Amino acid sequence: MENIRIRCRSCGKELEGMSGKTVSCGCANMAVIHNGVISAVDLSQVLMLNSLKSKVKNSILTSEDLAYQEARRQRKVRKLDFEIR
After folding, report:
1. Phi, psi of 67 (to 5 degrees)
2. Is residue 57 part of a domain?
3. In 3-state terms, what secondary structure has residue 73?
4. What is the pLDDT of residue 53?
5. 21 Cβ neighbours under 8 A, 6+ residues apart
6. Which of 3, 53, 55, 75 has a 20 to 30 A CA-CA distance from 83?
7. Does residue 79 fall inside a structural domain?
8. Which regions in the chain score pLDDT beneath 70?
9. Is residue 81 part of a domain?
10. What is the pLDDT, as a whole number, of residue 79?
């Protein structure tokens, strides 16, 4: 399994996570990798170089099914007016 790699934009230091070990850059942003979890004071200053999760899109629904569901989602609820006697 490949380790997570990040770069702290504040100090420019590149970090690679190791299992069971905490790795930190040490600057004011304090970017930390610990057991696959990334944390920092300002996460917008952290750049992901790679990730553990790969995005595989295995969709059961066809494009026609997705278009039907989207059209169905956009339907409005009709309010019915009843005459009270």
Report:
1. -65, -40
2. no
3. helix
4. 67
5. 34
6. 75
7. no
8. 1, 52-57
9. no
10. 78
